[in-house]
Amino acid sequence: MVVNNIDFSYSGQGTKIIEEISFHVRSGEMIGIAGSMGMGKTTLLKLLAGYENPDSGEVIGFTDAPDGKRRLDLTNRISTVFQETSLFSGTVRDNLLLAKPDATDTEIEVALKVAQAFEFIDELPDKLESKLSKMGKNLSGGQRQRLSIARAILSGKEILLLDDSFSALDYLTESKIRAELLNRKKDHIIFLSSQRIASLMAADKILVLENGRLIGFDKHEKLISSCAAYQELCRSQGIE
């Protein structure tokens, strides 16, 4: 995936939320996205996912097709999980099968285990056939996030975008999910946005955003000695 000098403002002509961002990511990499609240992390992920189009520049996938088809090809290979989860009234199985209608029970179980969701689903009275209320409100916030991650995993798509998707999880559960994702990242690209630096330290590289600009793109060990904004984020979270 290549991101080539993208700019973006929600009005198309107002204050730029994303400005002159370029980077290249290879298959098999996990990429962290760091920055304080309001620095453009979610907007960048929406641009990568195709939910928004850049005012200028482009996001390029893995094909030499013309621009329109090339962008469609990329969008069809992406699965997203945002902090505000999107679950629907219906059974747990119904919600999971939105990602892959022909998924087998074995595939569903694997996805649930990767997302650390299998245990709590298995404890529900009707397991996969248990009913969810609108937006999954009869689950806790952490359960909703884990189920949404499981659905994204089940899709099997090559690029996974996680936007602060661990915010409702305790650190132990989060660390188990990250370990599972790292074990499965071969032939995939994973983007993980978080305000918690500890969630990003194991990434192959970390994008550091400040006021919509990319001010650092490297491993944690190098950023902490070379990027002042990243150093400050680390210090504020007790990471030296």
Describe this structure in words.
With 240 residues, the chain is α/β, with parallel strands linked by helices. The chain contains nine helices and eleven strands. It folds into two domains: 1-77 and 160-170 and 185-240, Rossmann fold, CATH 3.40.50; 85-157, Rossmann fold, CATH 3.40.50. The strands form three sheets. It has a six-stranded mixed sheet, with helices on both faces. It has a three-stranded antiparallel sheet with strand order 2-1-4. A two-stranded antiparallel ribbon has the order 6-7. Helix 4 crosses helix 6 and helix 8 (220-226) packs across helix 9. The longest helix has 15 residues, at 141-155. The chain is globular. The model has no long low-confidence stretch (mean pLDDT 91).
Beta strands, count: 11
Q: Could you spell the SSE succession in H and E letters? A: EEEHEHEEHHHEHEHEEEHH
Quaternary organisation of the protein chains: single chain
Mean pLDDT: 91
Strand content: 15-25%
Number of domains: 2
* CATH third-tier fold name of the largest domain: Rossmann fold
Number of helices: 9
Write a concise synopsis of the structure shown.
The chain has helices at 41-49, 67-75, 92-97, 105-114, 118-122, 141-155, 171-183, 220-226, 228-236, and strands at residues 2-8, 18-24, 29-34, 56-60, 78-82, 90-91, 131-132, 159-163, 189-193, 205-210, 213-218.
Structure keywords:
single chain; 240 residues; alpha/beta; Rossmann fold; six-stranded mixed beta sheet; three-stranded antiparallel beta sheet; 11 strands; 35% helix; 23% strand
